[in-house]
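To whoever is on call:

I kicked off a structure prediction for a single chain this morning and the downstream step that reads the tokens threw a length-mismatch warning. I double-checked the sequence; it's 59 residues and nothing unusual in it as far as I can see. Pasting both halves so you can look.
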Amino acid sequence: MLNKVYLLLLQLPIGTRNPDDNDPIDLTNTFDVIVYIILPVLMVIFYFLWRKKKKKDKN
């Protein structure tokens, strides 16, 4: 009985995207380049700058 209920809970609802339907990142699309490359790099840079400033203010 529990096995059948568990299998029913694992099914994807109709109309939702399946993880297998994902497309690779299109680097010719400006939005994809900004979101997946530029923003993460900027976040890492700003994090290190913020950490450096915080450490400097502490001393």
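Update from on-call: the warning came from a stale cache, not from the record. Cleared it. Sanity check on the structure: Residues 26-59 form one domain.
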